[in-house]
Amino acid sequence: MHPCHPIKAYDIRGHVDDVTPELARTVGEAFAYLAKAEKIVVAHDMRPTSPVLADAFTAGVSTTGTDVIALGLASTDQLYFASGTLHLPAAMITASHNPASDNGIKLVGPGASPIAQDTGLEDIHTYLHTGRLPGQSHPAQAPASAGHVYSADLHQAYTSYLRGLVELDGIRPLKVAIDAGNGMAGHVLPDLLEGLPLDIVPLYFELDGTFPHHDADPMNPANLTDLQAAVVGSGADLGIAFDGDADRCFILDERGAPIPPCALLAWMATRLLARKPDSTVVHDLLTSAGTIEAITEAGGTPVRSRVGHAFVKLAMEAHGAALGGEASGHYYFGDFWHADSGPLAALHVLNAVGHSVQPVSQATAPFRRYASSGEVNTRVTDAPAVIRAVEEAFEERGFIDRLDGLSVSLGSGCWFNLRPSNVDPVVRLTAEAPTDQAMSELRDEILELIAGADGATAYVPGLSE
Questions:
Q1: Is the pLDDT of residue 455 over 50?
Q2: DSSP bridge partners of 119
């Protein structure tokens, strides 16, 4: 039915020429049959094509006789809130941090439970091509009457819920520069921050899915330059940047320097563990060893997870974790259905800064213990062959595991992970060592091996899942 479809490992995402209303309608129909729920929640972001896709998805759901609760404009974590409080499956029309030319669909089960390739997306893929879910011998028959569509406004309930999770009474006055990136953070933050002792320097709060100022991807340093200038120019205590659907946030210190997400996770974890000793904190396998050390030193239990929101959420549920995080800037909260929320992470950061006499750079310094390469992407023609070649080169030099791609621990604080992208012909390298020189030497050695195995020399910054 759809020979060119953009189903990925964790969501449906791609160019608007591929993410069409026809596709959205069929995915909505398949999701309704898969979810077997009386109602499904649907919301969308500010991209120009999102309302049309939301309407098409809703139409597909309603053709099965399933009712739809339509939230309209919402951030992704607002959709998670709706799924959690109503205990219903839900769909978010968004392409997250992707450029304006893209759009997509994120799906979750009741209670914001993750739906990924192995937990539903592959079944939807089958439906797109055959008109039936796995196990169905015949295409499903439409009911005699369509489902109803109900509008709902949970904005204030979401705001109250998040504010109730973080103690912000008594924080000191702060000047905060915030770059909403013309994304959904501009929709949720004004009410969420109202009444706090904050002098806000706002950048790009206007909802505009064409992203006229910069892409809403704060992992790309080029998209942080305006915020850095605002922090330094205004003398702000910190800066906060959000991605397009506001499920991630990035923090700049008072000098405009980005705080590594791993250091921020460590800071949040140690503050959590001071209140709730013996808590479990889930981290992805790209997380700095310094973060894992800090969690252990504070009396917590670190649990390692594969990269990706579905895996982190499942690990958090399995271990009853209070906090989780990824090196990509996603932060997950046990009291938020184990889901990720950029605004909630920002509130926790404001709590930490507001109760600290130290500037952000000093408060986070103890958690930046190792030098990291960040994610270095290389376009290759045969990712499995490249990874095998690197493994052979290191099999006698360190401990190897295959939880997610190839991870090698070399001792003395040196390690690396090399994994294939789920969406691009790319391998992704993250290397860490105690010093910049040792990290650079390790990184460059692996990149030379990659090039030698595949003839690959083109490093591709900014690609992310």
A1: yes
A2: none
Give the amino acid at 7.
I
**Burial grade of 393 (CB within 10 A; 0-12, 13-18, 19 or more):** middle
pLDDT band for position 3 (cuts 50, 70, 90) = very low
| Averaged pLDDT for residues 368-395 | 94
Residue-level pLDDT at 293:
97
Domains, the chain, ordered by start: 12-154 (3.40.120.10), 175-258 (3.40.120.10), 259-344 (3.40.120.10), 371-454 (3.30.310.50)
| Residue from 245, 297, 303, 298 nearest 76 by CA | 245
Residue 228 in tokens? 């850095």
**pTM, entire model:** 0.93
- Calculate the alpha carbon distances from 284 to 7, 225, 264 in Å: 23, 27, 14
Q: Residue 350 — left, alpha, or beta (φ > 0 → left; ψ -120 to 50 → alpha)?
A: alpha
| SS percent in the chain: helix, strand, coil, step 5 | 40, 25, 40
Q: For residue 406, what is the enclosing H or E element?
A: strand 406-411
* 96 annotated active-site: yes
Closest CA to 432 of 263, 308, 299: 263
Q: Does residue 424 register a pLDDT over 80?
A: no
Choosing from 50, 75, 83, 96, which is the catalytic residue?
96
According to DSSP, residue 400 is labeled E
Residue pair 280/300 in contact (Cβ under 8 Å)? The answer is yes
pLDDT tens-place string over residues 30-69? 999 999 999 999 999 999 999 999 999 999 999 999 999 9
Strands 39-44 vs 90-93: parallel, antiparallel or unpaired:
parallel
Give how far Cα 359 sits from Cα of 230, 254, 329, 365, 437, Å: 17, 7, 21, 10, 28
Task: Please say whether the beta carbons of 96 and 104 come within 8 A.
Answer: yes
* Rounded Cα gap, residues 137 and 367, in angstroms: 56
Q: How confident is the model at residue 5 (pLDDT cuts 50, 70, 90)?
A: low
Model confidence at 312, pLDDT cuts 50, 70, 90, reads very high
